[in-house]
């Protein structure tokens, strides 16, 4: 019977906000893990795999350069490397594909959450239209009590009528009926 008003709203946004927070913490942790001795520029003109062994490095395919990932920005600026040529984490995914894939996954998650919320609201409305088992039981018991009360009332009326007949106090249907003859 209680609604999950405020609690439901905070739980609904908890997962996306937690995921975004986790992503930012991972980016900061990745930047902090880079050892000062192995700078990303030392891997320039080597392979992408060697560059990306250090999680704080960014590989640019256009000029085969390995550079420090700009952790102050979410996406590397075009002045460093075009998004279609930038690689981070793995060599086979560029930033454009990563952005598109993350957008699609995020959209699907939002669509799933919206669908679930709409479905739950629809089911809650549907349940509120018909009474549940406890309400049905209460209605049934109330109807049984009303029927027993009517039976007792009729029984008491018949007993009172018998006592009135016995002592001559019975009221006739119409007191003026004897004067009609």
Description:
With 181 residues, the protein is an alpha+beta fold. It contains 4 helices and 4 strands. Strands 2-1-3-4 form a 4-stranded antiparallel beta sheet. Keywords: Membrane, Signal, Transmembrane, Transmembrane helix. It is found in: Membrane.
Top keywords for this entry?
membrane; transmembrane; transmembrane helix; 4-stranded antiparallel sheet; 4 strands; alpha+beta; 181 residues; rod-shaped; 9% strand; PTTG1IP
Helix content: 55-70%
Listing every helix as H and every strand as E from the N terminus to the C terminus, the arrangement reads: HHEEEEHH
Number of DSSP helical runs: 4
Question: What's the total number of strands?
Answer: 4
Task: Record the strand order, biggest sheet.
Answer: 2-1-3-4
User: What radius of gyration results from the CA coordinates?
Assistant: 41 Å
**Termini Cα gap:** 69 Å
Mean pLDDT level: 78
Shape: rod-shaped
Structural class: alpha+beta
Q: Which regions are unreliable across 5 or more consecutive residues at pLDDT < 50?
A: 1-10
Compact description:
By secondary structure, the protein is of the alpha+beta class. Helices cover 56% and strands 9% of the residues.
Could you outline the blueprint of secondary structure elements for this entry?
Layout: H1 5-33, H2 48-51, E1 57-60, E2 65-68, E3 86-88, E4 90-94, H3 95-129, H4 133-166
Antiparallel strand pairs: 1-2, 1-3, 3-4
